[in-house]
Amino acid sequence: MKIIIAPDSFKGSMTAQEAADAMEEGVRKALPDAEIIKVPMADGGEGTVQSLVDATGGQIITAPVTNPLGVEAEAAYGILGDGTSAVIEMAAASGIQFVNSETKNPLITTTYGTGQLITDALDRGVTEIIVGLGGSATNDGGAGMAQALGVHLLDAAGRELPFGGAALADLASVDCSGIDPRLKDVRIRLASDVTNPLTGVRGASAVFGPQKGATPHMVEQLDRALSHYAQIIHDQLGRDVQTVPGAGAAGGLGAGFLAFTDAVMQPGVAIVVEATRLKDKAVGADICITGEGGIDYQTQYGKTPMGTAQAVKEVSPDCMVVAIAGSVGEGIDQLYGLGIDAIFGILPGACTLQEALVCAKTNVSRTTENIIRLIAGRQ
């Protein structure tokens, strides 16, 4: 029997690799001779770097960066097993974890560090860069990232703009003559399920700004600044980034990539499915075990278990796909018929959150064992 094990991380308790290992343990107890293929998964959010590095036999790279507040820090990204692809979570250099309730300020935070990670990856000779958009502390439209890559954003007096989204209101000209020429030869893929435009009531500032410390007045200020930024980009570079779905991801970083590179935006789980070669590995599979920390009706909208199920069913229509989760929410009946055949919670009974996290590996292993015993016993 061929079994594919392809979970996402269980947030707060296990990486995707650790979850896969726990699932394998359960399978082996029930079916020792099974052919097992483990494929740690992700959907472009937190944990994507580690999952892809684990799945491809890659390595973690650490590099010096400028964090969102302009302070020196270190951030990690991954080089995949092929040696030519890099995977970067923008949050590693520009994420919300670098600020607190007193220091978060989207008027001044920058994505400069994300650009520095891209430069470091280019220095290592990569030909493809996957960038996970999410978890940002920024609202600068990717301006800082662009500056780190050699773009000059100038005010009316020809001075370089300071960091932050508010400064974009003073943008008068864009000089791309110094942009890193290696970007032309690199494929950049943006992993994001956010479809928000750059500006407006569904834009980066209005929807995500308050999470980053923006007051209602700041939201209006930032939205006007990003709108002006988009207009300058349109007038001087000929690229329309204001209304493109996904341009508002990560405080408008999506727009920055679309303006200054030839990046393409794709659903995160689709990128991971391709990078891990999940479909190739799933040909002829009898069972697929997937899962993550929580599963509910939202899982159908680009989350790992759904993307995994659909990819596996595409190449092995008769494969039984079972998802397990730390918590099972409302609306899971909507997932049946979309690729997932059954869903199981892992908790054996009432417990505290801390107890659930501590016992997660044991609970995943036990639940997987019982699932396999049930399925194998009916084969």
From TrEMBL:
Pfam families: Gly_kinase. GO terms for molecular function: glycerate kinase activity. NCBIfam families: glycerate kinase. One of its GO terms (biological process) is organic acid phosphorylation. It comes from Scardovia inopinata F0304. Coiled coil: none annotated. Keywords: Kinase, Transferase. Belongs to the glycerate kinase type-1 family. It comes from the Bacteria. InterPro entries: Glyc_kinase_flavodox-like_fold, Glycerate_kinase, Glycerate_kinase_RE-like, Glycerate_kinase_sf. The lineage of its organism: Bacteria, Bacillati, Actinomycetota, Actinomycetes, Bifidobacteriales. This is Glycerate kinase.
